[in-house]
Amino acid sequence: MGDAVPSLESIIEIFACTAHTAIEVHCPTCPKMSDSEHGILRAIAAAQQERIDVAREQFESWLPPVGADWALAPVRGLATIFRMAGLILPDRHVQSFDGGLN
Questions:
Q1: CA–CA gap between residue 62 and residue 75 (Å, rounded)
Q2: What is the per-residue pLDDT for 94?
Q3: In 1-102, where does DSSP find H-type helix?
Q4: So what's the pLDDT on residue 2?
Q5: Of 18, 53, 21, 58, nearest in space to 38 by CA
Q6: What's the rounded Cα separation, in Å, for the pair 37 and 45?
Q7: pLDDT digit of tens for each residue in the chain (102 aa)?
Q8: Residue 17: its pLDDT value, please?
Q9: Closest alpha carbon to 4 in 55, 40, 53, 52
Q10: Which residues make Cβ contacts (< 8 Å) with residue 1, sequence separation at least 6?
Q11: Which secondary-structure segment (H or E) carries 100?
Q12: How many CB atoms lie within 10 A of CB 42?
């Protein structure tokens, strides 16, 4: 996962320089994820499915349009790293085969 560090650093820098809304990040020992952490995972899941519009929309909740655009490359990098490690995140924006009947 050391390959993820440059992507994470880029995302942190983008947020530090352009965010119009703060994100909430819990400490590593916290048993619950924040809404912001869920949102970042949703963006990574969307990027794994090549649904870049969904990833960009998620980042626009915190960043101006140019910042959201800048965040896409490192998010795609994280999506690839996660996929290569066998971590495939579900894209909640895509309907399941049963049409959501479960």
A1: 15
A2: 56
A3: 4-18, 35-48, 52-59, 65-84
A4: 73
A5: 58
A6: 12
A7: 678 999 999 999 999 999 999 999 999 999 999 999 999 999 999 999 999 999 999 999 999 999 999 999 999 999 999 999 999 998 766 544 445 444
A8: 96
A9: 40
A10: 81, 85
A11: none
A12: 19
Q: Which residue, chain included where needed, has tokens 């049963």?
A: 98
pLDDT at 91: 73
Q: Quick one: tokens of 51?
A: 């649904």
Q: Give the whole-angstrom CA distance, residue 94 versus residue 18.
A: 29
Distance, CA of 79 to CA of 45 (rounded, Å): 7
Residue with tokens 């349009």: 65
Taken as a whole, the chain contains a residue count of 102
CA distance 57 to 6: 22
Largest CA distance in the chain: 43
Q: What is the pLDDT of residue 102?
A: 46
Residues in CB range of 50: below 8 A, 6 or more apart: none
Q: In this structure, what token pair is assigned to residue 24?
A: 């909430």
